[in-house]
Design brief:
By secondary structure, the chain is mostly helical. It has eight helices and no strands. Helix 1 packs antiparallel against helix 2, helix 2 packs antiparallel against helix 3 and helix 5 packs antiparallel against helix 6. The protein starts with a helix and ends in a 15-residue tail after the last helix.
Length: 256
């Protein structure tokens, strides 16, 4: 095979590889359920299979044409990397992509969501960062390092649907950042710089009247995730009571 023909094939391969790489990047940046994204993976997998076949054929045909071999080796490595990226996308569990919808969850889904949320508030927001607790006694005009301190999230958050909704998406974004390939240092920084402070400000303002009514202004307490564990259990029980049961596992039998 003439060197010119091989060069044209490699150029065409590089062009197709660039298109496939762009398609993978767009898919990785898309939001939505995993089911939708996996459907989009099928044509990409077929295209990738075809690229791998073409690179393998060219590796055999190129023989002793050294200048083209290095270019083809680089393309082969890129194809392999794309294969790893697509595999990683396909292996992400649905729980880590699906956005919680409290209005449509069944009992099992809501129970899992409540556990994930309360564990995360305890271990991360309160335990790690100390962002949940009473804000009484803190002078809002005081500054530290030239900045006004952010208010804490009231520990009665579980009694307020608005707080549950806000903390739910903040929790899910945090879990996505640290448990999937979606996370990057810049996205983690954005979570700390914009998302978390925004939630703290909004919830402090929304629940300020509740804090006063419940006497939170009387004393400064250590950060606490939940004001009353018994009340939390009661709230969860009432929430699960009205929800439908989870569907039985396995295929549903057809009815005549």
């Amino acid at each position: 095979m003439a060197a010119e023909g091989l060069a044209r094939q490699i150029l065409a391969l590089a062009t197709d590889l660039g298109k496939l790489s762009s398609a993978v990047e767009r898919l990785d940046a898309e939001t939505g359920t995993l089911r939708t994204r996996v459907t989009s993976l099928d044509p990409l997998q077929v295209a990738l299979d075809e690229l791998e076949s073409r690179t393998s054929t060219l590796q055999v045909d190129i023989g002793a044409i050294v200048p083209l071999r290095s270019a083809l080796t680089s393309l082969t490595g890129q194809v392999a990397q794309l294969r790893q990226d697509l595999t990683a996308l396909a292996s992400q569990s649905e729980e880590k992509v699906m956005v919680w919808d409290w209005a449509t969850m069944n009992q099992e889904e809501a129970g899992n969501a409540w556990k994930t949320l309360t564990d995360w508030v305890r271990n991360v927001l309160a335990g790690r960062y100390g962002w949940v607790g009473h804000t009484s006694g803190i002078n809002p005009s005081s500054t530290k390092g030239g900045q006004t301190p952010l208010p804490l999230i009231p520990p009665c958050w579980y009694l307020h649907q608005e707080a549950v909704e806000e903390l739910s998406w903040l929790c899910q974004e945090y879990e996505r950042l640290f448990t999937t390939r979606y996370g990057t240092p810049s996205k983690v920084g954005d979570w700390h710089d914009r998302y978390a402070p925004g939630v703290r400000r909004r919830l402090a303002a929304a629940l300020s009247d509740c804090a006063k009514k419940n006497g939170h202004k009387e004393a400064i307490l250590q950060p606490m995730a939940v004001e009353d564990d018994a009340a939390l259990s009661e709230v969860i029980a009432r929430d699960l009571e009205w929800r439908p049961s989870a569907p039985p596992p396995g295929p549903v039998e057809a009815t005549s």
